[in-house]
Specification:
The complex is a heterodimer of chains A (413) and B (146). Chain A is α/β, with parallel strands linked by helices and 413 residues long. Chain A is built from 14 helices and 17 strands. The longest helix of chain A is centred in the N-terminal third of the chain and has 21 residues. The chains are: A alpha/beta (413), B mainly alpha (146).
């Protein structure tokens, strides 16, 4: 079956937008956030129009409907990712999920001097929480270098350090380079040789990966994975920390408050079992429902076919950009790709200037350091322009983007 | 003087008139590239932490002072040409005004250049950060002069 791009695009109202300049929107900023199909928008609207109520509390009809929809959403989402619902902890997104891991697991299971092994490729989301932990409890951070020639992790360095590491945090798919890291090997090495042979705990930052990949979380043998709904057609402000059976019992409560307690006294409390123990306060109800609607919508496709389409667009665009004089493409798009991100720079035109000229033609691309400043420094740059594709993008859009970029460069350089 | 729509300094109004003849955003940006070459720059050797405008995607530096007559003067440089071009336009708008007028000078003049859509408030927007900084400097200079 081939993806019916016309039918897919018809589900996204925003993709028909035409700017006052007459240029149609060509949305190529999908690694930042994806657009939402009308089914997701409608599910969230229906919730607010017909069922809005707080969950887990009152006995009235709306409360029962809202609670059922909210918890059914957890079942839909956990089925998609391949784990039991009680081990899918709702968060506001990947960043909060990694912070939850650091606070609820890291603080009670790591101690001064323990080695936390990260990589230079991490988004700040998988760097700063561990820096905070290093400052607060004295864990030692070490980093697997990125080879700036091949744009891949130095796996020899990983192997040399893994024996000492008690915890490994690794970006599943780079938001800058598009590369998919060898996470299966990383997990295997961590489990067999990590922590002096006792096995290291592994967290994957799967923010970019979930746009393409259902993960198969339990089958991967990983301990934690963090992800965001909005990278896969769901709403912003929603995500999850996925937790293995072995780790869920090791986590201690983090945020305290409503909905996470079983019983409270003035001087102490007992806590709900997971997942609710880790979800204090009124949760993101409409967002959970919206995320499940996004998964229902994606379920009509073969995700391998979706991924092949996106990677095809990225490979084609990267190859075309490399033909343009003055353009450097960052990342090996002929290698093991995991996302539709194509980062590039022109040797004389500033990335911010280029972004304005691309925007003037209707092309939405990202410009900046992509919240990965250590990786930028390793590559010897401070920013890139980044076009990133998703399943609704077409080869015509990719070609129009390349043509427009060539025109801008011809005009200005 | 209460600067704003329909009442801009003559040197800025000339620029606005020039932009008003152009309907294509690409062409407007190209005009800013031309203005960038007219900007009185802050030489790179004078770039320092004090002159740096924080929060810009581009590297941008400004230096504000009062001339012998107590009038505001800003010089600045950026590595992005569009930001540099906007600095040149800003120089035409505010240089020579009393510092207290600069401190409240409306940034909405970019709207009259037809560039507002792409210069909307954004923490990564070099020009807005730069102009906010210039107004703060003008306020300090006005207070110092008073």
């Amino acid at each position: 079956m081939t993806l019916d791009l016309e039918a897919i695009r018809a589900d996204f109202p925003i993709l028909s937008r035409v700017f006052p300049s007459g240029h149609p929107l060509v949305y190529l900023d999908n690694a930042a956030t994806t657009q939402k199909p009308r089914q997701v928008i409608q599910a969230m609207t229906d919730y607010y129009e017909q069922h809005n109520s707080n969950v887990h509390r009152a006995v009235h009809t709306l409360a029962a409907e809202a609670t059922a929809a909210y918890e059914e959403a957890r079942i839909t989402i956990s089925d998609w990712f391949g784990l039991e619902p009680h081990r899918l902890l709702y968060t506001s997104g990947t960043t909060e999920a990694i912070n939850l891991c650091a606070h609820a697991w890291g603080r009670s299971n790591l101690e001064k001097g323990d080695v936390v092994l990260l990589t230079e490729m991490e988004h700040h989301s998988d760097l700063i929480p561990w820096q905070m932990l290093a400052k607060d409890i004295g864990v030692e951070l070490r980093f697997v270098p990125v080879d700036p020639e091949t744009y891949t992790l130095d796996m020899d360095a990983f192997e040399a350090t893994i024996g000492e590491a008690k915890f490994v945090g690794c970006v599943h798919t780079s938001n800058v380079l598009g590369v998919r890291n060898p996470v299966e090997r990383i997990i295997e090495l961590a489990k067999t040789r990590g922590n002096g042979g006792d096995g290291a705990v592994v967290l994957l930052d799967s923010a970019q990966a979930v746009a393409h990949d259902r993960l198969g979380f339990d089958a991967m043998g990983v301990d934690f994975a963090a992800c965001s709904a909005h990278k896969m057609c769901g709403p912003t402000g929603m995500g999850a920390l996925l937790v293995s059976e072995d780790r869920i019992g090791e986590m201690t409560h983090f945020l305290g408050g409503g909905d996470m307690i079983e019983e409270a006294w003035l001087d102490h409390a007992t806590y709900q079992p997971p997942p609710h123990r880790f979800e204090a306060g009124t949760p993101k109800i409409a967002e959970a429902i919206g995320w499940a609607a996004a998964i229902d919508w994606l379920s009509q496709f073969d995700m391998q076919e979706v991924s092949a389409h996106i990677l095809g667009l990225a490979r084609h665009t990267a190859a075309e950009l490399k033909q343009i004089e003055g353009i450097t493409v960052y990342g090996d798009h002929e290698g093991d790709l995991g996302s539709g991100a194509v980062s590039f720079l022109h040797d004389t035109l500033h990335s911010e200037d280029l972004a304005h000229f691309l925007d003037a033609g209707g092309f939405a691309v990202r410009t900046g350091h992509h919240c990965a400043q250590p990786l930028m420094r390793r590559l010897g740059i401070s920013a890139t322009n980044r076009a990133s594709f998703y399943l609704y993008n077409t080869m015509e859009e990719a070609d129009a983007f390349v043509t427009h970029l060539k025109g801008v460069i011809d005009r200005l350089s | 003087m209460d600067w704003g729509e329909g009442n801009w300094p003559a040197s800025l109004q000339e620029v606005i008139d020039e932009f008003s003849d152009v309907f294509d955003a690409m062409e407007r940006y190209e005009m800013l590239f031309d203005f960038a070459s007219e900007c009185t720059p802050l030489p790179m050797e004078e770039w320092c932490e004090d002159t740096r405008v924080h929060g810009c995607q581009s590297e941008a530096h400004v230096l504000c002072s009062l001339d012998d007559d107590g009038r505001f003067q800003m010089i600045g440089s950026a590595d992005a040409q569009i930001v540099q071009g906007l600095m040149a336009v800003a120089q035409k708008a505010i240089n020579g005004l009393p510092p207290e007028e600069v401190s409240t000078f409306p940034v909405t003049f970019t709207r009259e250049l037809g560039l507002h859509d792409s210069l909307s408030p954004n923490r990564a927007n070099g020009f807005l950060n730069m102009f906010t900084r210039v107004r703060q400097e003008a306020r300090k200079l006005a207070q110092g002069a008073a």
